[in-house]
Amino acid sequence: xxxxxxxxxxxxxxxxxxxxxxxxxxxxxxxxxxxxxxxxxxxxxxxxxxxxxxxxxxxxxxxxxxxxxxxxxxxxxxxxxxxxxxxxxxxxxxxxxxxxxxxxxxxxxxxxxxxxxxxxxxxxxxxxxxxxxxxxxxxxxxxxxxxxxxxxxxxxxxxxxxxxxxxxxxxxxxxxxxxxxxxxxxxxxxxxxxxxxxxxxxxxxxxxxxxxxxxxxxxxxxxxxxxxxxxxxxxxxxxxxxxxxxxxxxxxxxxxxxxx
Length: 260
Prior knowledge:
The structure is a single chain. The protein is mainly alpha-helical. The chain has 2 domains: 59 residues; 187 residues, no CATH class. Helices cover 77% and strands 5% of the residues. The protein is built from 11 helices and 3 strands; from the N terminus they run H-H-H-H-H-E-E-E-H-H-H-H-H-H. The protein has a 3-stranded antiparallel β-sheet, with helices on one face. A hairpin with a 2-residue loop joins strand 2 and strand 3. Helix 5 crosses helix 6. The longest helix has 35 residues. The chain is globular. The two termini are 22 Å apart.
C-alpha cells in the first residue's frame, strides 16, 4: 500500500508552518456560526451579555483554542490514537447501557470517579478519527466495494444504535452525518449514495405521519380545515427540516475542522 505524503514524511514542521497549514477559511466559518449563536443569546437577554452570552463567549473561545491546539499536533499521532479512542468511546457507550444513570429522562451519563461523562460526545470525535484512519488506507475504488463499505457502515451503525437507545436522537443524527460525510469525502460511489438519499427522502414524510395525524385531530373541528391541513403539512415538514439542518451544520463544521 502506497503511503500518502504526510505519512511518509520524516521532517518536522515548525509552529509557524503548522499555523500556515490550518484551514483558516473553515475556522472563519466556524467563528461566524459561533458569533451568530452569541448574538442570539445577547438578544434573548434583552441586549445584555449576562447571563448567557458572556458564558457562551468563554465556552466558544476555549473550544477554539482546543481546536487550534489539536490542529498543531502531528497527524500521525492522531492516526495512532484513532482506533483506541473509538474503542474506548464504544466501551463507555456499552457501560452507559449497563451502569449509566438517568438525567433529564434519558440514560446518557456514566460516572468515572468525580466526573460525569456523556460517552456519546466522545464518540463523535472517536468515530471521525477511527473512520478516517480506516478510509486512509483505501483507494476510491476500494471504498465502494461491499466489504470495506460494510465495515465502515458498521463503525457508524453500532455506536449510533447505542446512542439512539438512550434515547438521544440529536447526537445519533450527528454521528450518522459525520460517518456518511467521511464516506462521501473518501469517494463513495453515487451508485450507493443516490438510492440511499432517495430512501431517506421517502422515509421522512412517513416519519411525520403520526405527528400530522395528531395535528389533524386537533384541527378536526376547524371550519377552515380544507385550507389549514395542507398548510400544516407543508409547515410541519419545513420546520422539521430546518431544525435538523440547524442542529447538524454547526456540529458537522466543527467535526470537519478536526478532520482537516
